[in-house]
Each structure stands twice: as structure tokens, then as C-alpha cells.
């Protein structure tokens, strides 16, 4: 079943970032979508074991950073190590969105979201957020499309 979903449901690849009082972190996510038009709201499905899961709840804000097709290595950097013991931002240039979420300087675009709700969905949690700030950073770049074989 999962093989069919992976081939036939299309996702981009994003870095979900957040900031608490103590630290910043980011993780790669493919399961991201718009879920409301007015207000504009996004969702991201995050496994409860991810460090980012607890940080977003603590922060109340998260940012969705859209990767471009030449950024598979960034997706691997944020997707294969946990921020619990590792500073994934060590060699990454970033700036802060208005509510403090770190934004990758080289992302295509970002959406900073105020956390509205989280729901359990099987083995993941769905976080929904209202977009409070958004910008296109790289005007003509193509997004990275998630392909299972690029990573696993
Ligand atoms: C291409 C790619 C897509 C991923 N998509 C998701 C996702 O949608 N949701 C999720 O919970 N984890 C996803 N992951 C796994 C997390 O990025 C990974 O577990 C990460 O190390 C968690 O980091 P953290 O512990 O610092 O939060 C993905 C990983 C990769 C490489």
C-alpha cells in the first residue's frame, strides 16, 4: 500500500523550523498541505518521536520552508539526524521570521504559521497553523518533488 501512495500522491519537500526560548531546530517533511483558504492555513504531519514535535507545541509557531530541486542534500541533513543531540543549523545560513522561526536563506519560499491545533492521525500528529507571514525568496526556482528513491 505505502509503495502505491508514495508513487501516486505527489508531495514537495520542506524544512519545518521552529524556535523555543532555548533553541532552534528544523526537520524535513514531505507531508505538508494547504488546508484552508480564508484564513490561509497549512498542515504538517509529524511523528510524535521527532524532536520538532515537542518544540512546535512549546513554541506555538512553526515555519514551512520550501526546498528547490537542487536541495536534496539539505533535505537529508534535516531528515536523517535528530536535533536532540545535533545542531542542524551549524552550517546553514538563516534569518528570523517575525515570530522567531528560523528561515533558510536559500529556500524558495517560507510560510510562518501560528499553531492552531494538533490532532492524532494514526502514527503521526497533524499540526495546523494559520499563515502569519510568507515570502517568495527565489523567484524562478523549481520545487523539489519528493521521490522515495532519492532518500531511502
Ligand atoms: C525526504 C524526507 C521526508 C520526511 N517527511 C517527514 C514527514 O512528513 N513527517 C515526519 O514526521 N517525518 C518526516 N521525515 C523524517 C524526519 O525529517 C526525521 O525523523 C528527522 O530526523 C526529525 O528530526 P528532529 O528529531 O530534529 O525533529 C522525513 C525525512 C525525509 C528524509
In short:
The chain has helices spanning 2-8, 51-59, 72-79; strands at 14-19, 24-29, 32-36, 41-46, 61-66, 94-96, 102-104, 109-121, 124-136. The chain is of the alpha+beta class. The longest helix is centred in the middle third of the chain and has 9 residues, at 51-59.
Please tell me about this protein's structure.
The protein has 152 residues and is an alpha+beta fold. It has a single domain (2-150), classed as Electron Transport, Fmn-binding Protein, Chain A (Pnp Oxidase, Chain A, Roll). It has 3 helices and 9 strands. The strands form 2 sheets. The protein has a 7-stranded antiparallel β-sheet with strand order 2-1-5-8-9-4-3. Strands 6-7 form a two-stranded antiparallel ribbon. The radius of gyration is 14 Å and the shape is globular. It starts with a helix and ends in a 16-residue tail after the last strand. The site of flavin mononucleotide has 23 residues, from strand 2, strand 4, helix 2 and helix 3.
Amino acid at each position: 500500500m505505502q509503495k502505491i501512495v508514495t508513487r501516486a500522491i505527489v508531495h514537495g519537500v520542506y524544512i519545518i523550523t521552529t524556535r523555543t526560548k532555548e533553541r532552534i531546530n528544523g526537520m524535513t517533511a514531505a507531508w505538508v498541505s494547504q488546508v484552508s483558504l480564508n484564513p490561509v492555513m497549512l498542515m504538517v504531519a509529524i511523528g510524535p518521536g521527532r524532536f520538532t514535535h515537542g518544540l512546535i507545541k512549546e513554541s506555538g509557531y512553526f515555519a514551512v520552508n520550501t526546498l528547490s530541486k537542487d536541495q536534496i542534500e539539505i533535505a537529508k541533513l534535516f531528515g536523517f539526524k535528530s536535533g536532540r543531540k545535533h545542531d542542524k543549523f551549524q552550517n546553514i545560513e538563516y534569518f528570523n521570521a517575525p515570530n522567531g522561526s528560523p528561515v533558510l536563506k536559500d529556500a524558495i519560499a517560507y510560510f510562518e504559521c501560528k499553531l492552531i491545533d494538533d490532532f492524532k492521525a494514526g502514527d503521526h500528529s497533524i499540526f495546523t497553523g494559520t499563515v502569519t507571514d510568507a515570502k517568495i525568496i527565489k523567484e524562478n526556482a523549481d520545487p523539489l518533488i519528493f521521490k522515495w528513491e532519492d532518500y531511502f
